[in-house]
């Protein structure tokens, strides 16, 4: 099936292009252009032509870090994963890394194995993200403290074996005993390592980035803040061109002015994630995250035990609207949801863009940045 989306405002590659079109064929972007030139091209004779009537057309979004939605968590098995993915797909997330909260090594190995099976069957699932158990207890957030541990080599190897090459990301606190050694082992295995849930100093963070870490997990949250004499991991990441900073743009985790500060401090290196838990797409109520009781009120998830923020109820289209409201230029905000996370995972040639040859993943938005339509591999969802 060949499809032409025409008459839209294409937001890609740092630009907004009016009266744009994109042609999809065999699951890929065949070509893009402006005006009506496509009508004279025999390749598009009989194509399914969709008039976007001035709507925005963007690449499909990629979520590096999310835990669930639709009332369930990615930790809960294949049916729960399908339910949660459907929620986020409707909000423009065409590809996702599935994040797992801290659990025992046995449980994590089993869950990573489940996601490995799904990754082989469903190309919209990019693999798993281990957010724990190798985290600092003093910055544990919504992770069970008794299950946190240093990254012993045996545990690292057990998880890598279970993942069969599908673990995409791991968050760890590099200052833990054996932290840098584990970091190097994950990097050698092709895993993107994120500094996060950490007490790391500026120097320790720099050492982690020099050792191969390329991400900062949900910047500003679960780590030391910026101090003028102790800049910490945030400034270390902003100053290092090799590092992508995750950001939860829900107006709760990070103030809008700080969202703007992050984009200014690390241009082209901000990835807008959801960190969504089960309440995403459902709403307020009582939930469980990693075995911990959570109450969601007015869209904010907090642990019952100590009131700590426990993930978000965010979807990526809402993150886009929050970023734009924080005065982030629309092309920059879209890139933070598409090309930047694709590049962070080493997928920049195939995903995160509507350049010819890329996967035909696309989202159409109205003027208020509400999702109208979603395409994956050239098929309308």
UniProtKB/TrEMBL annotation:
Location of the Amidohydrolase-related domain: 56-378
Cofactor note: Binds 1 divalent metal cation per subunit.
UniProt key word Membrane: no
Cross-referenced Pfam families: Amidohydro_1
Family, per entry: Belongs to the metallo-dependent hydrolases superfamily. NagA family.
Domain of life: Bacteria
A molecular-function term among this protein's GO annotations: N-acetylglucosamine-6-phosphate deacetylase activity
Active-site feature positions: 275
Keyword check for Coiled coil: no
Residues holding Zn(2+): 131, 197, 218
GO BP term, pick one: N-acetylglucosamine catabolic process
InterPro entries according to UniProt: Amidohydro-rel, GlcNAc_6-P_deAcase, Metal-dep_hydrolase_composite, Metal_Hydrolase
Cofactor(s) listed in the protein's UniProt record: a divalent metal cation
Official protein name in the record: N-acetylglucosamine-6-phosphate deacetylase
Annotated residues for binding of substrate: 142, 221-222, 229, 253, 309-311
Protein EC: 3.5.1.25
Primary enzyme class: hydrolase
Keywords of this entry: Carbohydrate metabolism, Hydrolase, Metal-binding
